[in-house]
Structure to design on (52 residues):
């Protein structure tokens, strides 16, 4: 979602998965991620803004 790659090494290979958000970001509810995060790496610091 952010274009931010999070390098992860596993069995000699390096993977670059993109950061993903939790459902609380989409529903604009209090964050449910570990540590009160809206995304896996913490790039999303607040809920999605309202669409107009």
């Amino acid at each position: 979602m952010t274009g931010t790659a999070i390098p992860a090494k596993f069995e000699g290979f390096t993977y670059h998965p993109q950061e993903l958000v939790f459902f609380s970001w989409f529903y604009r509810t209090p964050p449910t991620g570990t540590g009160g995060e809206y995304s896996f790496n913490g790039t999303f610091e607040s809920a999605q803004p309202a669409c107009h």
